[in-house]
């Protein structure tokens, strides 16, 4: 019996690798002869770097970079087991965890640190970079990232613009002559399920700005600045970034990549599935165990369990897919027609959040064991 184990992390309690280990331990208590293939998964958001490093036998890199407010900080990214692919979560350098109620200011927040992570990856000689877009504290259209990689954004007097989205209102010239030439030989894939454009009522400023501290006046100011930024890019570089779906991801970082690199945008979970080789590893599988902290009707929209189910079913149409979750919400019936065959909650009863976190590994292993007992009856 071949069993693929491909969970996401259980946020706040278990990494994807730890979740896979717990599931495998539960299964092997009942089916010790089973061939278990564990593949830590993610959907492009938090935990993607660790999951892909764990799944491929890669390594974590630590770099001194610039945080969203311009302060030095240490951030991590991963190099996968092939030695050629870097995976970066933009939030590691430019995330909302660097600000609080008293310091958040999307007018000045910068993605410069994300550019520094990319530059370090280039120094390692990678030929492929995966960037997870999400969890940002920024609204600068990726301007800071571009500046870190050699782009000069100049005002009417030829002076470099300061950090932040508000400064883009003064943009007069985009000088790409200093852009790191190594970018031309690197494939960049953006992991994001956000389809928002850069500007407008569905744009980066209007939709995501308020959670980063933007007042209504700030939202208007930032939206106008990003529209001007996009117009200058359109005129001087011949690239349209304002209306492209996904350009508004991570405070417009998607637009920055589209303007200054040859990046392409993909579903996060699809990128992870591709990077881990899940489809190939799932060939001939009889069962698949997946899961994450919470499963509900939204799981069908780019979440890990659904992506795993679809990939595994394509590789092995007769494989039974079991999803395990810390909590089960409304609308899960929709998932049964989309590739997930059964969903089980792992909680033994009413519990505090602290207890749920502390005992997540045991609860996950016990639930996997009980499901395995059902499978064993069919042998």
Automatic annotation (TrEMBL):
Keywords: Kinase, Transferase. GO terms for biological process: organic acid phosphorylation. The keyword Transferase applies. It is an enzyme of class 2 (transferase). InterPro entries: Glyc_kinase_flavodox-like_fold, Glycerate_kinase, Glycerate_kinase_RE-like, Glycerate_kinase_sf. Transmembrane segments: none annotated. It comes from the Bacteria. Its EC number is 2.7.1.31. It holds the Pfam family Gly_kinase. The keyword Transferase applies. Gene3D superfamilies: Glycerate kinase, domain 1 (3.40.50.10350), Glycerate kinase, domain 2 (3.90.1510.10). One of its GO terms (molecular function) is glycerate kinase activity. Belongs to the glycerate kinase type-1 family. This is Glycerate kinase. It comes from Bifidobacterium dentium JCVIHMP022.
């Amino acid at each position: 019996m071949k069993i693929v184990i491909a969970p996401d992390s259980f946020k706040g309690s278990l990494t994807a690798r730890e979740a896979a280990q717990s599931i495998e331990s539960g299964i092997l208590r009942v089916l010790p002869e089973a061939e278990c293939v564990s593949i830590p998964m993610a959907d492009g958001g938090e935990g993607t770097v660790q999951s892909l490093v764990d799944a491929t036998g890669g390594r974590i890199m630590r770099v001194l970079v610039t945080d969203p407010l311009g302060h030095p900080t240490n951030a991590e990214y991963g190099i996968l087991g092939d030695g050629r692919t870097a995976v970066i979560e933009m939030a590691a350098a430019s995330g909302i965890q660097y600000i609080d109620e008293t310091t958040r200011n999307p007018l000045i927040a910068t993605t410069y640190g994300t550019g520094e992570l990319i530059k370090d990856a280039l120094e390692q000689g990678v030929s492929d970079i995966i960037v997870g877009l999400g969890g940002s504290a920024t609204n600068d259209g990726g301007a800071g990232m571009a500046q870190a990689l050699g782009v000069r954004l100049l005002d009417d007097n030829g002076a470099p613009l300061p950090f932040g989205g508000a400064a883009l209102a003064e943009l007069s010239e985009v000088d790409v002559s200093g852009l790191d030439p190594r970018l031309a030989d690197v494939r960049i894939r953006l992991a994001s399920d956000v389809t928002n454009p850069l500007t407008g009522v569905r744009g980066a400023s209007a939709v995501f700005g308020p959670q980063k501290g933007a007042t209504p006046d700030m939202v208007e100011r930032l939206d106008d600045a990003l529209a001007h930024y996009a117009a200058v890019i359109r005129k001087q570089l011949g690239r349209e970034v304002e209306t492209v779906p996904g350009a508004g991801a991570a405070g417009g970082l998607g637009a920055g990549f589209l303007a200054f690199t040859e990046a392409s945008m993909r579903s996060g979970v699809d990128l992870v599935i591709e990077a881990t080789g899940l489809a190939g590893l799932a060939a001939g599988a009889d069962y698949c165990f997946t899961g994450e902290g919470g499963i509900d009707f939204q799981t069908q929209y780019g979440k890990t369990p659904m992506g795993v189910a679809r990939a595994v079913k394509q590789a092995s149409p007769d494989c039974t897919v079991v999803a395990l979750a810390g909590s089960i919400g409304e609308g899960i019936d929709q998932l049964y027609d989309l590739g997930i065959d059964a969903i089980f909650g792992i909680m033994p009863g009413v519990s505090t959040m602290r207890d749920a976190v502390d005992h997540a590994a045991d609860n996950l292993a016990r639930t996997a064991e009980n499901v395995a007992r059902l499978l064993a009856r069919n042998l």
